[in-house]
Amino acid sequence: MGEGKPDEREWGIAKIVESTEEAVLVAGFLNSNGIRAEVESLHVEEMPVNLGGLGEVRVRVPADRLVEARALLDASDASSAAGAGGDDAGDDADGRGDPAE
To answer: Which of 14, 18, 39, 50 could be 69's S-S partner, Cβ–Cβ 3.0 to 4.6 Å?
Structure first.
């Protein structure tokens, strides 16, 4: 009768974001890496302001994959941050403003 309910309690929050679009991207990233993920939202699109917890959008994964999902997301965030800094450094290394030229 209530077989769906116990399974729901075995999910954890991998990440909280501010928009449904971002949550869908995060869930898609996790799904593409073999971790089942779903989006849970209390976000009300019609409201022009964020109302704290009512504006949160959560990406949930099975509890037994929670640590793995968070590690994967942290690694992706670190990689993105390093890549953004690396692009700027690459522009400087390409000779822009190089006195030798």
So the answer is: 14
